[in-house]
From TrEMBL:
Organism annotation: Dipteronia dyeriana
Protein name: Uncharacterized protein
Domain of life: Eukaryota
Record carries keyword Magnesium: no
GO molecular function terms listed in the Swiss-Prot or TrEMBL record: RNA binding
Similarity comment: family membership: Belongs to the PPR family. PCMP-H subfamily.
One Pfam family linked to the record: E_motif
One of the GO biological process terms: RNA modification
PPR repeats: 182-216, 313-347, 348-378
Keywords assigned: Repeat
Length: 528
DNA sequence: ATAGGGTTAG
């Protein structure tokens, strides 16, 4: 190779491009490229280097500027090569503009620039970002025609898109058909099994794969946690610790399992591990920790972690709000909600579930009504059945049964079990038999196997001394169909799990527990 | 230059 001044300048600029942190720096280098004539040396290749540099910039406010710059660079290339097209498609997938990525791909096809084995993974990623299975199928057929499906990256991209589109059979087909598979093929398919609800199949693949990396472990731990198999999730996490260093993703999933189960000791150990290993607490981990401590009863620690967290996202805020709601801290929750809005975080449906549930528990009726009104008009969050359910519960508790009934009648959709059960709960508290009968009819129609309604109606009639009706209800219950699912709760104390089922007396300290419970009950009835 | 796993609610 002949070392020329031009080559040195080219290499320097190439390295400088890689180090660019801002769009301004790229502009300067781009200008330099033009003025020194280096751009004309190999225009297609060098312009693409600029495009690649653009995509490595961390988007600050919006990626729109970066993309429009990238497009203008692309448009200045007279006859873009495959490499150029790949780069502009890649830029759009990286900066979350998948539709445009697909449009560039179709432009590429229409001007007969042949795609290569780099093109397909980019384009398929755009399909998965769009959630468009049909586009993926089209791309798949093109890849098949040109003969790229045997490429490992292409076939893995296809396994992935079919997995996330809940097309497990297609994902399995791709997996079985691919001549060579690697750990990524297995991981993508394991995720597909999890997403299609077949955790057993996921486990089977996990057990038989020749090599497992942290993604394999993390996928299955989170799969178990999401499928409600929390004990399995924690067990697998412990097994993982013996084999490989858990990363943030595995830690988050394990924390979620601990939170769901109330596994205080296990979750604390994870927290200790995070601190000892000086793991950077990202927004996912802070969410996991806040949720975990809140669910295990330690709302103060949850608040502490939330406040000290450097990295919060919508879920972190939601976990905090839901935690405060669970603990009955209604006023504090409203303060946090305002802080969230002021911080520029856009609330979603979960946010409002937390806020409304919190108001309900704290009896903050006016506040809830106002926020419920503003949900769509001010915050642009659509009011779903769950939110109406919260309102029915809140109004019912506050003895505003008529208002709750009016709300339900005016709803744009028909009420579901949660809405009518919410209203029924209010009727039960305030002894409103008439409305209770209507609400109960709806619940029984929508969920005939629900035993709770019958129990509630029996109690209501008993309070109203309508004994004949009590007998009728009991007869219905005994007649079958009704599943009596007993309420149950778990609490861990000093490392021992205590389990209670409604009405049981199996705990060794049952008598003592009831003495305290009765005392609390009496205390609650006394005026504060 | 290309492929895979994460948190909140229900």
């Amino acid at each position: 190779m002949v070392i020329t001044d031009q080559l040195i300048a080219y290499k320097t600029i190439n390295n400088l491009l890689k180090q660019c942190k801002t769009i301004k720096q790229i502009h300067q280098l781009h200008a330099h490229f033009i003025t020194t004539g280096l751009l004309s040396l190999n225009p297609c290749h060098n312009q693409s280097k600029i495009l690649i540099a653009v995509t490595t910039i961390k988007p600050t406010s919006s990626s729109t500027n970066l993309l429009s710059y990238a497009v203008s660079v692309f448009n200045s290339i007279p006859n873009p090569s495959t490499f150029c097209f790949n780069t502009i498609i890649r830029a759009h997938t990286l900066l979350s503009s998948p539709l445009n990525a697909l449009l560039f791909f179709s432009q590429m096809r229409s001007v007969s620039v042949p795609p290569d084995f780099h093109s397909f993974p980019f384009v398929l990623k755009a399909c998965s970002q769009l959630g468009s299975l049909s586009s993926a199928q089209t791309i798949h057929s093109q890849a098949l025609k040109i003969g790229f499906v045997s490429d490992l990256f292409v076939s893995n991209s296809l396994i992935h898109i079919y997995s996330v589109s809940h097309r497990l059979r297609d994902a399995l087909y791709m997996f079985d058909e691919s001549s060579h598979r690697d750990v990524v093929s297995y991981n993508a398919l394991i995720d597909g099994c999890v997403k299609s609800g077949d955790v057993a199949k996921a486990r089977e693949l996990f057990d038989k794969m020749p090599f497992r990396d942290s993604v394999s472990w993390g996928t299955l731990v989170s799969g178990y946690a999401k499928s409600g198999l929390c004990k399995e999730a924690i067990q697998l996490f412990h097994e993982m610790e013996l084999n490989i260093r858990p990363d943030n993703i595995a830690l988050v999933s394990a924390l979620s399992a601990c939170a769901q189960l109330g596994e205080l000791e296990c979750g604390k150990r994870i927290h200790d591990y995070i601190q000892e290993s000086r793991i950077r607490v990202d927004s996912f981990l802070s969410t996991g920790l806040v949720d975990f401590y809140a669910k295990c009863g330690y709302i103060e620690i949850a608040i502490e972690i939330f406040e000290s967290s450097q990295d919060k996202n919508l879920c972190t805020w939601n976990a905090m709000l839901v935690g405060l709601a669970m603990h009955g801290h209604g006023q504090l929750l409203l303060d946090y909600f305002s802080r969230m809005i002021n911080a520029g975080v856009e609330p979603d449906g979960v946010t409002f579930l937390g806020v409304l549930a919190g108001c309900s528990h704290a009896g903050l009726v006016d506040e809830a009504r106002k926020l419920f009104d503003k949900m769509e008009s001010v915050y642009g969050v659509s009011r779903e059945l769950k939110h109406y359910g919260c309102m029915a519960d809140l109004l019912g508790r506050a003895d505003l049964i008529k208002e709750a009934m009016d709300m339900i009648n005016k709803m744009p959709m028909s009420g579901d079990v949660s809405v009518w059960s919410g209203l029924l709960g209010g009727c039960r508290i305030h002894g409103n038999v008439e409305i209770a009968v209507q609400a109960a009819d709806h619940v029984m129609e929508l969920k005939p196997e629900d035993g709770g309604v019958y129990k509630m109606m029996a109690d209501l009639y008993a309070d109203a001394e309508r004994w004949e009706d009590v007998v009728k209800i009991r007869t219905c219950m005994d007649a079958g169909k009704v599943k009596k699912i007993a309420g149950c709760s778990l609490i861990q104390l000093n490392g021992v799990m205590h389990e209670f089922v409604a009405g049981d007396d199996l705990h060794p300290q049952t008598d003592d527990i009831y003495v305290v419970l009765n005392a609390i009950g009496k205390h609650q009835n006394e005026p504060c």
